Every structure is written in C-alpha cells, then in structure tokens.
Amino acid sequence: MKMKDGKGVIESGDTLSQIAKKNGMTLKALLGANPSIKNANQIRVGQSITIPPKAMLGGSASDNPYKYMSRDETASLAKDTEANRARLKKQKETGKSIPRDRNSKTNRAAETSTRKMQNAVKNTSAQMNPSKKNKNTGSSMSPKLQKLFRKNRR
Asked: Could you say which architecture CATH assigns to the domain 2-153?
C-alpha cells in the first residue's frame, strides 16, 4: 500500500486485515476510520482509505487485527471471503467475468458485520470524546488531540 498524507492507496493483493496489522491497529479501528467501506472484503485497487494516527486509536492499537471481533463477525467475513475466492477461481477457469452477487447471504452478512464494527468504533469514540464542540474550531476534539492529529498528518 502506498501512503500519502494519512491516506493509503490500495494495491493489488492488499487486504484490510493486512493493512490493519501493518499499522498496528484492529480491523474495527480501520473500518471506523473509513465509514464509506460497506463490506470489509470489497476493496478495490486504487481505492483511497484513511489510516488513523496511532495516537487516535486509544485501546484499538493491536498486533492482532481481529482483536475485539466477535466470532459471528469473524465467521461472516470468512464465509464471504471463501465465497469470493470460489467465484474468482471459477472466473479464472472459464475466462468469463462473473459478477459478485450483492444479494447473497454471505455478502449481506459481511456487510452487516462491517457496519456493526464501524458503529462500535463510532460509539466508543463518542464515549471517549465528548460531543462538546470547541467554540473556536468547531471540533469536538480537545485542542491537545487536534494538535497531535495535525502533527501526525504531516
């Protein structure tokens, strides 16, 4: 993955769990920073994602990207990955493009798990950072966190 200004650009072969592990964070933390990702198993080459600075992770810094994930969340992502690999294998064998079935049970379960993880991160960060906004900046982050965030973005 290429990094630029706190953003990462997905390259061929990248997975969100590998990116989370390389950056010392959980998959939940990475998904929380990227609410536009609907399914953790569906990222594209060239897609830009936000890599949160380590100082912003709180308790989400980890060598294990699957830490804090329930068995159901892990299982649904694994089943979706397995179904996607089977589709890609068949596509390679036949030489024909086989579109992903967005209404399949495994895809819907993976999207639900992804949303749950993103909401868990959002709720946790809301508890850690009160929503009281700074009059001068309009941000709910403390001035100290804002300074640290700006420093890490450079």
From this structure: Roll (3.10)
**pLDDT score of 77:** 83
Domain coordinates in residue numbering, the chain: 2-153
Bigger pLDDT: 109 vs 139: 109
How many residues comprise the chain? Answer: 154
Instruction: Give how far the C-alpha of residue 73 lies from the chain's centroid of Cα atoms, to the nearest Å.
Output: 13
pLDDT at position 47: 92
DSSP state string for 74-128: HHHHHHHHHHHHHHHHHHHHH-S-----TTSHHHHHHHHHHHHHHHHHHHHHHHH
CB contact at 8 A, 38 and 100: no
